[in-house]
Structure formats: C-alpha cells, structure tokens
Amino acid sequence: MSGLSRRGLLRGAVYGAGAAVTASALSGCGSLAGSVTSADDIQYWTLFTGPDGVLMKTITGGIEKRVPGLKVRTTVLDWGPPYYTKLAMASAGGRAPDVAIMHLTRLAGYAPGGLLDPWDTDLLAEYGLKQEDLNSTLVKRSLYQGAPYAIPLDTHPFIVFFDRDVLDKADLLTTDGQLMPFESPQHALEMMDKLRRSGGKLGPVLGHVNDAAMGWRMFWTLFSQTGATFDLTGKRAEIDEDTAVEVVRFMADLTRDSRTMDLQTANAAFATGRSPLIFAGEWDMATFKPTLKDRLGGSPFPTFYDRPAGAADSHSLVLPHQDNPDPERRRRTHRFVAELVKSGLTWASAGHIPAYTPAVSSSAYARLSPQSQYAGAAKQLALDPPVWFAGSGSDFQTRMCQALDPAFAGSSSAASAVRTMISQINTLMAQPNPA
Amino acid sequence: MASVSTPARQVAAGSRRPAATDRSRSSGGTGWLFATPFLVFFTLFLIVPLGIGLWMSFTNSSLTGHGDGTFVGLDNYTEALGDSQVWETLGNTVWFTVLSTVPLVVVALVMALLVYTGMPGQWLWRLAFFASHLLPVAVVYQIWSMLYQPDRGMLNGLLQAVGLDGVTWLTDEKVAMWSIALVTLWWTVGFNFLLYLAALQAIPDHLYEAAALDGAGAWRRLWSITLPQLRRTTGLIAVLQVMASLKVFDQIYLLTKGGPNGSTRPILEYIYDTGFTNYRLGYASAVSYVFFAVIIILSIAQLKIFSRGED
C-alpha cells in the first residue's frame, strides 16, 4: 500500500524557494536540513483499488520522480460508506491525512461542518493548474461559501456501452458510428424492440438488483432529463411526483430484460454478447474492452426526454481539516495535486473523463477509444442534489435503490415506488445535519 | 543491594507460603489474579464502551465531532420510539429470528437423532453436517449468491428441470427473508447438531435398557426418555440461537444490503447506517439501547419458559 513512499525515503532535498520563505513558521521540522524524512511524506488517502489503484500508483510514482523532494505515502481504503466514515473520523479527530480523494457529491456533508479546508487556487495556478482549465460544472459544485473545497480529478458519469456490430445491423448508429438520437421515450422503446428482434437477444440491460447505486443513477439520469422539480432545499421534499412516476415506468419498460439482473450478471450478459447495450458506469470500460475489443462502443447517456443529462460524480481532491497545518507541507500538497490533476490523460486510460480540459481536448485523448466517444458526457453532468445525506456511497442512494427495485422487477407499481422514495427522502430531511 | 533484597525476598516467600498450604483461604486472591487480564479487557472494551454509549445516547454526538456532548435528555429515545424505521427493522429482525431459530433447533435435532440412532460412519456425518459452519461468511455469500441467481443459478435450474417456475430469491419482498433464513440454516445448523449429538451421547444407556425391559417401543423411548433428557440442551440451543439471530447482520448485508425495499434490513444495519453512514452517533446509540432492552426482555422471557418445569 505504501510501497511507493519508501523507495526514496532519504533521497530528498530541500523542497524549494517556498520552503525558505515559510521556514520561520516551522518548528524544527528539518526541511532546511536538506533531508526528507518519512514524516515529511504527504499523506494521501485514496479509495482506488484494482486497475484504478494500480494506475494511481503509477501516476503518483511519476510525480515523485518529476518533483524532487516530493514524497507521497498513499493509503488505500476500501471505497464506500466505511471510507467516508474513516475520513470523517480522521478529520474530526485531528489526525487527518494531508490530502484525500472524495466524491464531489459528498462535499455537502463535509465542508459545512469544518471537516475540510479550502484550497489556495493562486498556489495551484503557480504550479500550472488554473481553475479555468477544469470542468466548469464540477468547479461550480466544489464551492462552499465561495471558496473551493475540492479540486476535481475526473468525472465518472453513467453512460451506455454498446456492441457496434449489432447496433449497426439494427440501424441504430449514425454514419460516424454514434448512437442514433431518440425522439421520445416511446420512440426509444420501439427502437429497443427492433434491437431485440434484429439481435434475437436481450434488449438493453442494467445491473440494478440489490445494488446500492445503479437504480438511483438510472432514475436520476432520466428525471434530470425532464427538468422537473426535485427540490430538497426546504423542510420537505418538493418533487414533481407525476413526472417521477412516468420516469420510473419508462425505466422499467426500457430495462425489462434485466429485471432480475445484479451488476455481475448484467455485465456478463453484455460482455458475452447476450445483450447488445448496457447502461453502466464508464469505469466498467475495462471489464468490457477485453472481450468486445473494437466492437465496444460508448456514448453519453442518450437523451430520452427534454434535455441531455446523465447521473455523474467526480473523484475530487480535498484537504481534510487540520488545526495547525504546516504551511510548507500545504504547499507541497498543492504541488502534488496540481501535478496529479494535470496527469489526467494517463488517468483517462482507466475510462474516467479527466476534469482537466486540456487533457480531454488533446489529440492523444481523441485516439482513446471508446473514451473519446463518450467524453461528451462531461457536458451533461447530473450530480446528486447538494444535501448532506446524498452522494456516492450514501445511505440515501441505497434507500432510493431499494425503493425502486420492486418497480424494476414489476412486483410493485411505479407510483408506490415513488411514494416510498419521497417518504424516505422526507425522513432523511427531518434529521439534523450531523456535520 | 543484597541487604535490601533479602528481607524483600523473605516477605515475598512469607506471603506466598499460605497460598501454597491453605488453598481455601487464599483462593479468592489467586482467582482474581488469574482473572485480571480478562477483567482488564472486559472493562476496557466492553464496560467502558457500554457506559460511553449510554452517555452518548443522551447527547447529540456526531461522528464528525460536532454537537459533541450536548445533552439532549431523552430526545433521542423519543425520536427512536416514533421512528418507523426502527420498528420496521426491528420487525424484520424478529421475523428473521423466528424464521431461523425454529428450523435451526428442529433440523439440528432431527439430524442428530438420525446420526445417533445407528447410522454407519458417524464421523462422516459429523464432518458433513459441521463443515459448512467452518466457512467464513464471505464464502457463504459467494456460494449462495450464485445458487440464488435467478437466470443462471442452480436452484432455479433445478426448479425449471422439474417444470416449475423460477423464483427471484433475493429480489422478491415476500421471498427474500426466507432465502436469507435458508442460507443461515445451511451455514450454522452444524453447531447445534454437534451440541445435540453430545447431549444424546450423555444420556445413560440404562434408561433405555430399563424402558426396553418394560416393553417401550422406539417412539415411546423418544418421547419419554430422549426428548425430556434433551430439555436442558434444547433450552441452551434455543437461547443461544435467538441471541445469534437477533444479532444478524453480515449475511443480509452481503446478500441483499437490506433490500428489496428494506424488507430484509435488520435493526443492526439501521444502527450501522445511522451511526456510521449518516454520522448520527447519539441517535444510533439510543436505538442500540432500545434494541438492547428488547434483547434482555426476550432473553428473560425465554429463560423463564425453559426453566419452568425443571424445578
């Protein structure tokens, strides 16, 4: 886990001019002595495991090589509720890491409680990372009382993957290989029937059964496309119930072939060619690529209603609150994060869309397939409502998924699913914000 | 140095001598000595947290360190008693306890009786029935999530082979809890089976011989000797099982995460989510103590039922 940081433990040098300027503020931490000890390592908490974790390790290692004196000790923790529990406890307990990955949607539960410290954008700009080079939707969402509390590394939207050959046969691709636009939900259902007939297989699938996020992502995507009211700012939820019911009904019709499919089964159905289209997260790209190879197509979530939208989140970098941060250490943390975000192109090989726009518009990115085909999804981000209880890995998402599941399965009506959702949201809204 | 150590050693020897010679008088002291390591850990990791938890349940503490220590009196308890989620998840927990405890006692007894009454190769049965108990819950989850797979799972495969419709084991609100109970039965019945088997082996043979001389048949012997002789064991197993079932969390969390639609969500998951996902430690503590009270009441009731007729 922390193998990276040991490699050059004693190889460091004086950090730079910045260290000299701020040295008076340091109480004998030794940065002027010219050696970097393990105590000077930047403590970095991430939630990346598997291929993402390996890639992050490579990127961090590269930065350590490029920037003399910068050493990063990475701690990888299992993603999900336990990660956020640990992060909150570390911040509240005064033993926070210097920098941590956080889903941008969790910010509303952290920043107002003083669990995070704001970033110094001037300092980041000094190291070559300008705010205007970052995805503007994400930057806007990272503000709390006007100050930036998160630096987005990427966005990971909910999109569609498809089998080019099958969709081509069903006339569902445009001449440049993109997914044909749908005129309406009704049109989409007809097209999907056509797809079933021409492929002789399943239609689109979604692995939602007993999952803690997929059902909600699907609902939130479609509901956001309608532009209807979903207001959680008051004391009780104000939600356009009729639209919600309509969306749930459509969602169940659209995915009627995956009523009983959990994530693994749905992914397997798509990867083995039983289904030609899957609603999935872009992070599943690596699962599909090896079997489908060049046939694997990807596209932003299709617009079925009035406006483009796709449920999304962003792996962002935050400064967990420290009572007396060492200024020199903070500078190094800023340096590290600037380098990290600028490494977006490498990060994109995992499927994520970099938040760093120069990386997305580069010619190297254009050559990444299918990443470059679905990169447009970054322009239609629908993040969870900014309330303390929502966001990735939250109890809220689990409850929404559980409310939706019977409707997906056809064992209860769309109207009753929506009623359950709203009552669950109101229960959460009645609780005090613990932060 | 020597002049100091000699009297000290004499004192030590003097104090030790009675312990070696007069066991009854000093056994209390030695007992405490042996119990100390346990008592330290018991106090540190059970009594102290219990106390802190109780205190927290009267405050609005949060995991994020805010609102710490603010005394709110019985607010959390009032909220808990009026919280529909508490009652729903408590209901789920009790329902699971009923669904699991009854077969876990009955099936274990039947298995033990079958093996004890003259099955050849007892070691094989003991191993076969106990083996699943040795598996970690993560493995149990892996096995059963595959068996329960609606499209490709073995259980539906078997059902369809005999012309029946497949079942959505973990996604139907009416079925999911039964499925969880079935997994639990398969996983943990071996332990109760062993307890019963040991108890059966402890029944004196002369009781059966006397009964046989009086002309009692197999059923008569079962009802009049075996089952009454097993009463204590049954009581023990039932109490242990109810406790274990009330504490259910892991297999549900892994298999259904409390779904579909919260129908399998046990109260411990609600406490976990409240405290560690939504950070409301004070409130989560209060719900824990409500649950604690329920467990105590159920245990006392159960002890009373099983001790009746023994005196």
What does this protein look like?
Chain A is of the alpha/beta class and 435 residues long. In chain A, strand 1 (42-46), helix 3 (50-66) and strand 2 (72-76) form a beta-alpha-beta unit. Chain A is globular. Chain A contains 19 helices and 18 strands. In chain A, helix 9 packs across helix 10 (241-254), helix 10 (241-254) crosses helix 19 (414-430) and helix 18 (395-409) packs antiparallel against helix 19 (414-430). The relative contact order of chain A is 0.17. Residues 1-36 of chain A have low confidence and may be disordered. In chain A, strands 1, 2, 3, 4, 7 and 16 form a 6-stranded mixed β-sheet that branches. A 4-stranded mixed β-sheet of chain A has the order 10-13-9-14. The two termini of chain A are 30 Å apart. Chain A has helices at residues 3-6, 17-22, 50-66, 81-92, 121-126, 136-141, 164-169, 185-199, 214-226, 241-254, 263-271, 285-292, 327-342, 344-348, 357-360, 363-366, 371-374, 395-409, 414-430; strands at residues 42-46, 72-76, 99-103, 116-117, 143-144, 147-148, 151-152, 154-155, 158-163, 204-205, 230-231, 238-239, 277-281, 296-300, 310-311, 315-320, 353-354, 381-382. Chain A folds into 2 domains: 6-153 and 314-342, D-Maltodextrin-Binding Protein, domain 2; 156-312 and 383-430, 3-Layer(aba) Sandwich (D-Maltodextrin-Binding Protein, domain 2), CATH 3.40.190. Chain B has 311 residues and is an all-alpha fold. In chain B, 74% of the residues lie in helices and 0% in strands. Chain B is built from 14 helices and no strands. In chain B, helix 3 packs across helix 14, helix 4 crosses helix 8 and helix 4 (84-116) packs antiparallel against helix 11. The longest helix of chain B is centred in the N-terminal third of the chain and has 34 residues, at 23-56. The radius of gyration of chain B is 26 Å and the shape is globular. Residues 1-21 of chain B have low confidence and may be disordered. Classes of the chains: A alpha/beta (435), B mainly alpha (311). Chains A and B meet through helix 4, helix 18 and helix 19 of A and helix 13 of B. Chain B: Residues 1-27 are annotated as: Disordered. Chain B: Pfam families: BPD_transp_1 (PF00528).
